[in-house]
Amino acid sequence: MMTNREIKAFAWHQMHGNWIASIAAYLVMVIGIVSISFGISMVLALAGMMLRDPVILFGSSAYSTLLISTCAGICAAALVALLLWFIIGTSLGMEIMFLNIVRGRKCVPFDIFKGFRVRQMGHYLGVMIIIWLISWVLMMPELFLSLRMGFQTKTVEVINIITTLLIYYMALVLGMAPLASADNPDMKAGTAIRVSIHIMKKRKIRFLLLMLSFLPWILLSVITFGVGFLWTIPYMVAAQSIFYLSAYSEDYQGNGNDDVTPYAEYRELSPEEAEAVKTQEKDTPEKHASFEEIYQATHNVQSIDSNAQKVSPDESQRDLEPENYKEQTKLLDSSHDADTNQTT
């Protein structure tokens, strides 16, 4: 498992060449959400204006009011459904986009629309619904006591604090489920939830510290009146994606099945299966690289490049082609070729 320092450094490195694409993707997402929300408010405002002075279409203001209310309700419901569909699709597309970025692929802003795949959207929506329902279950005691005892009582305030802590804990435990669903198109919602619970079993504090380490970035973004969030949010999402891939690669052993994922399988192997896989790996010279191996190879290549720049031009030309450099870059090349073949 990579350390938080390595995760942040690798996230910053992988964002090189992808800053514009990620920022533009977020702007596309925000513009779409704002536009649809504006359409909903316009429909409701227009319906309210017409209901104050209904146009008589059927010889009676009652029929006109009913018609206006019905049409406004249908239009508003359709726009709300469109808004939810757009949010789910672009959120899934954003998760896929950043998983590709941290794996070394170049992305474009419109990669955000790769999330609009019906089957995968269904699994991703299932994950979000499960998380939403658990949050509502945790809030029910507070809501019930607030209605019976009032919102300003000390008991309700204590319950509010406890509920908030439980929701934050739930967010830590299930925080990797959306990424697991985005990373594996065929993974069902229940499986993604179980994967997240397993990954975060012993890593909740580490992930919390990783997110807290971005507080200076968040404060800087607030000082710049929100402009800094254009860089802070992509940086945080990239770090979160690397945290998931690093933990996922450590906990789950790959089986070479490209239909699942090029890096790992989301089913944990039994001791007997793990031993069989190790035996098979000894007999099989080529296998998919884990994310840890990709990071290590990238780190080694960067070290060699930086050392080569410190020597004379003649020595640099000679040092750029050593055998160990070829061996270290071969792992990255084979991984990128596997990703290209899978995409094709």
Q: How do the helices and strands line up, and which of them pair or pack?
A:
Elements: H1 4-14, H2 19-52, H3 61-102, H4 118-149, H5 154-174, H6 177-183, H7 189-199, H8 204-212, H9 215-223, H10 229-251, H11 271-283, H12 291-308, H13 313-319, H14 323-343
Helix pairs in contact: 1-10, 2-3, 3-6, 3-10, 4-5, 4-6, 4-7, 6-7, 12-14
Q: What does this molecule look like?
A:
- The chain is an all-alpha fold and 344 residues long.
- It folds into two domains: 4-275, no CATH class; 289-344.
- Helices cover 75% and strands 0% of the residues.
- The protein has 14 helices and no strands.
- It is globular, with a radius of gyration of 25 Å.
- It starts with a helix and ends with a helix.
- The relative contact order is 0.10.
- Residues 253-269, 284-289, 308-333 and 338-344 have low confidence and may be disordered.
In short:
With 344 residues, the chain is an all-alpha fold.
Ends distance: 31 Å
Largest sheet: none
How much of the sequence lies in strands comes to: under 5%
How many distinct folded domains?
A: 2
Return the average pLDDT rounded to an integer: 77
Strand pairing plus helix content: what structural class? mainly alpha
Broad shape: globular
- Total count of strands: 0
Q: Which bin fits the share of residues in helices? A: over 70%
Could you list the spans in which at least 5 consecutive residues all have pLDDT below 50?
253-269, 284-289, 308-333, 338-344
Rg from alpha-carbon coordinates: 25 Å
User: From N to C, what is the helix and strand string?
Assistant: HHHHHHHHHHHHHH
Number of helices: 14
